Amino acid sequence: MQDLLFPDGDAALPPSAPSAPSPSLRPAKAAAPRLARTAAIEAQVPDPALQALAEGLPAHVRLGTSTWSYPGWAGIVWDKACSETLLAKQGLSAYARHPLLRSVCVDRAFYRPLSASQYARLSAMVPPDFRFVVKAPSLVTDAQVRGEEGRGRQPNPAFLSPDIAVREFVQPALEGLGAKIGALVFQLSPLPMSMLAHWPQLLDRLATMLRALPSLRATAPDAVIAVEVRDAALLTPALADVLRQTGATYCLGLHPKLPPIEAQLPMLRALWPGPLVCRWNFNRRHGAYGYEAAEKLYEPFDRMVDPDIETRAALARVVLGTANAGQNVYVTISNKAEGSAPLSVRALAEALQRP
């Protein structure tokens, strides 16, 4: 099974150059629809092919998107165009009725810690078999205190603090989401060079924090702690050792700041067997700092603009290898991956069932 999941057989962990961008078609954007601001949000009625596609996926493979409050998903996820504010408050219930969307990444927890009651409101909107992927607050995962423009201003004294990680993230999530937790993700923001130059000390701090976290299994049997990085220099056997020793796993991050999937497979191999947590964040064609450009190009996120067939096919192979071994799979996809996250989810589901 390891050979099927990791066919390259390469045990090293070097970063590699980005793959060539996929050809893209950029259709003209449609005129913005009039948005409903008060009406109830209903799910788009799925077509039979979509329903059949969902029924063909293993129960322990959960696909989803990065958050859900996008008016442009009308006709894909929602039955009509609604305001972003209304979707943010009420849209998750309709989202969870989409046959393929059985998970979601709660990105907003990264910007400000959520309370147990806020998590509980989210939990009440979804069925029992739905699973949340939640990003830890930047308060504990960013080594720097940043200004509004995003530049680091000073060292963050709370970086990788065990007490803050438990109090502001893990404990509220456990209390509010309970068994509906799929993965709690500590995404380490890009680190200053001074810290990367002393990465053994960094990994010691990470290990100390991970060991201090409470066990998830009693409350959330499917849950896993995952660590995602933004610096390719951290993709080393030493990081894999820390994760293995602390019972955490590696979050496969698909982002231009990291090498392609194939170069990240050794991290998964080192932790095998185990669940797969993947966040497909951003299309490689835009480069490491093209997030805002991609957002402007892809809005309103209602169509596939830059299909990344190569990445999708590679991800499908890893998902299948993990699922066939009976391990849980959590994959969440951003609109900035290909243009429309729910359409990317559908395309991935199709790839998973293609002969």
TrEMBL record:
Pfam families, alphabetized: DUF72
Organism: Variovorax guangxiensis
Lineage, broadest ranks: Bacteria, Pseudomonadati, Pseudomonadota, Betaproteobacteria, Burkholderiales
Protein name as catalogued: DUF72 domain-containing protein
Region ranges (Disordered): 9-29
SUPFAM superfamilies according to UniProt: TM1631-like
InterPro entries xref list: DUF72, UPF0759_sf
